[in-house]
Structures are given as structure tokens and as C-alpha cells.
Amino acid sequence: MTIQPFAFQLKDGRKALIRSPRDEDIQxxxxxxxxxxxxxxxxxxxxxxxxxxxxxxxxxxxDRVNASDHEAMLVCLVEGKVAGNxxxxxxxxxxxxxxxVVAIALLKEFWNQGIxxxxxxxxxxxxxxxxxxxQMELDFVEGNTRARALYEKMGFRITGVKxxxxxxxxxxxxxxxxxxxxxxx
Length: 185
Fold this sequence. Notes:
By secondary structure, the protein is of the alpha+beta class.
């Protein structure tokens, strides 16, 4: 699904652009994936795992998502740099098409600028415009209080826990929490 581009102002006054990914974003997205993986333990990859991402793979992903009728990806650009992205995906199966899964991440330098809120507002709009979607779902890693606060602000509530779902390099085990936001019809 392709989303019409829109601009908004960050809390610090800079302009940001949110839109569907384009071929011109491929290198910026690859850089973003690598950098974001090293900035926090709450992203489900380490920088050294980013070698699996290639320009060809990103192009194929962008093309598939933009042509899809059951998923959308949004990229946020600030001064031409990929600041973050999010994705919403829903099933086409009759028993599960009421559920949409969402994911989001931002580079640390862009935290606290309103980008996460604005990306979530757009994902919620997409979900609300789909007559089949009744709930949005996501997971977050134990200790990620910033993400949890954003998700709760956007109307999500914790519905479950996966004990020891994440294992860090040092052996630390962290729980993963599931959250749901119901779409009011």
C-alpha cells in the first residue's frame, strides 16, 4: 500500500516527511537498520546481523509492500536522513484478517521529537479505514519503558508476556510483552 507523503514539524522546529519507501531510500534504510541495531538492546537484531540486508533485498521489500493491499511501510525523513520507520501488516485469512501487527523504530538522535506519535497516528488511520481490522497488535521488550509509554499513550494495553523471549549476548534473559489496541467501530 502506498501512502501519500505528508510533512510535519518536529518539536525542535525541523521539518519531517513521512511517506512510503522509495528506491532512493535504499541506502539510507540500510544505514538506519545498522545504526538503530546498535543503539539499544530493544531492537531484535544486532548490528552484525544486518549483513543479511542488501540493496536488492530492500528494493524487493519496498516494491512488495508498496504494491500490497494488506501491508504498509512508512519512512520518516528528516533533512533527507531516514530517522525511522514503521510497518503495519494484516492477514487476508478470514479468521485473522481482523488483526493488524505493527512495528516501529527510530534512530536515537530523533527520540522525543514527536515522530513515533505521528507514525502511530498514521498506522491507526490505516487500521481504522480498513473495515476488517478490529485490533492492532505489537510486542515490546522488558525494560523498554519509553516504547511502552508511547504505546500506552496511543491506546495499547498489555495482554500477555512471553517469559525469557529475548536473550542478549551477555546471557541476560528478558521478557517480551504483547499489547493490543482495539479499533472502535
